[in-house]
Amino acid sequence: MKTKRLVLIGLFSAICFIGTFLHIPIDFGGSSTMIHLGTTAIFISAIFIGKDAGWAGAIGCALFDAMNPKFAAWVLPTFIIKGLTGFVVGYIAFMFAKRGNNLVQNIIAFIAGGVVSLLGYFIVNWLVFVGFYPALFKMISSLITTGLGVAITIPIAAIIKPIVNKSGLKLDAYEN
């Protein structure tokens, strides 16, 4: 693995941690959930570093869970779910050599990643933590988190990404 790639994964992992740290906790029937900006950070990571956003999301979001006693039991599920979310978004955003530069393709990527996250957390909540009906209820916070991610990241993909591209700053570790 190249040094630049490791540095970018580390940088975006930190951004994902901070995004998850910026949250509104919600306690529900002895269980905790939250609305946060971690998914937004994963989406932003994906349009800049592609499928490596899977590592960034997995590390950054799971690290938040590991440092918060309310969410410590979620470290492994979060690592897997947010890792898959970032990988899917980054993979789709970089398909067909678009490298996160096609807005329509990015929106499709954000929606696909959101579905991965929603289904992943629903399944783990249902089968491991709280059961079917509470898992359905907890999807509300996941839907809000994903919706915020899509709503915030679309303008970033449309406005900020082209500015970064024109600046000559090479964030993609796979570029020559």
Summarize, please.
The chain has helices at 3-21, 38-49, 53-66, 75-93, 103-129, 132-167, and strands at 23-28, 31-36. It is mainly alpha-helical. The chain has a single domain, classed as Arp2/3 complex 21 kDa subunit ARPC3 (Orthogonal Bundle), CATH 1.10.1760.
Tell me what you see in this structure:
The protein has 176 residues and is mainly α. The protein has one domain (3-24, 33-167): Arp2/3 complex 21 kDa subunit ARPC3, CATH 1.10.1760. Helix content is 72%, strand content 7%. The protein has helices spanning 3-21, 38-49, 53-66, 75-93, 103-129, 132-167; strands spanning 23-28, 31-36. Strands 1-2 form a two-stranded antiparallel sheet. Helix 2 (38-49) runs parallel beside helix 4, helix 2 packs across helix 6 (132-167) and helix 3 runs antiparallel to helix 4 (75-93). The longest helix is centred in the C-terminal third of the chain and has 36 residues, at 132-167. The chain is globular. The two termini are 15 Å apart. The model has no long low-confidence stretch (mean pLDDT 92).
